[in-house]
Design a protein that fits this description.
Strand content: 5-15%
Helix content: 25-40%
Shape: globular
Distance between the termini: 14 Å
Radius of gyration: 17 Å
Order of helices and strands: EEEEEHHHEHHH
Number of domains: 1
Strand order of the largest sheet: 1-6
Oligomer: single chain
Length: 192
């Protein structure tokens, strides 16, 4: 989100073959037991050859109910949960068929809350090494998350029990910092 806050146009890669172990279908929150990963179950309709745009959300598990319950448990005591929950609660009630559809609606809410005016586009073709873009795709593969720039400290709800946690979903920042979240992103150093 720090990178998105610095640009006017964002391109979401939807034409590559879907890759597991990325932030496309999961995020990490900070709950009473420490880090907790929330994963959206997906269906690869063409097996390992399924394009990201064609990934469907599996309806076999009550993931939305589970995710929202986990988010409420983690953040209901945070300073700004009550101010922002109405932006996110509907995402856990509405049915979404495609992962990219859900992610787009979620990103729209995040941009609104953070007052970021970037325009979101979807790629039309796949390019392994786009030369005219600040390419972030490899950074958010699970194996690389630990090598991201360390987060600047802010107060977290369960920090007294577990210490400061970094590498979390942007909702951790929003629910803990509220209107100061945009300033936090501005001060966040981005490695190119």
């Amino acid at each position: 989100m720090a990178a998105i806050s610095r640009v006017s146009d964002v391109y979401i890669e939807v034409m590559e073959t879907y890759r597991k172990q990325t932030c496309r279908n999961h995020c990490t929150i900070f709950g009473p037991n420490g880090k907790q990963t929330l994963t959206i179950p997906v269906i690869k309709v063409n097996g390992n050859h399924t394009l990201t745009k064609d990934i469907r959300i599996s309806g076999h598990q009550p993931w939305q109910k589970t995710h929202w319950r986990s988010i409420k448990t983690a953040y209901s005591n945070s300073p700004f949960f009550l101010f922002y929950e109405h932006h996110f609660a509907p995402l856990y009630e509405k049915h979404f068929e495609f992962l990219v559809e859900y992610n787009f609606v979620l990103l729209e809410q995040l941009l609104k809350v953070l007052k970021i005016s970037a325009t979101v586009h979807f790629t039309k073709t796949f390019s392994k090494s786009p030369s005219c873009f600040f390419d972030q795709r490899e950074k958010y593969v699970v194996r690389n998350i630990g090598f991201l720039t360390p987060s600047v400290h802010y107060t977290q709800v369960f920090e007294p029990s577990h210490g400061f946690m970094q590498g979390l979903s942007i909702i951790d920042v929003i629910f803990n910092l509220g209107p100061e979240s945009a300033a936090y992103l501005e001060n966040f150093q981005i490695n190119h």
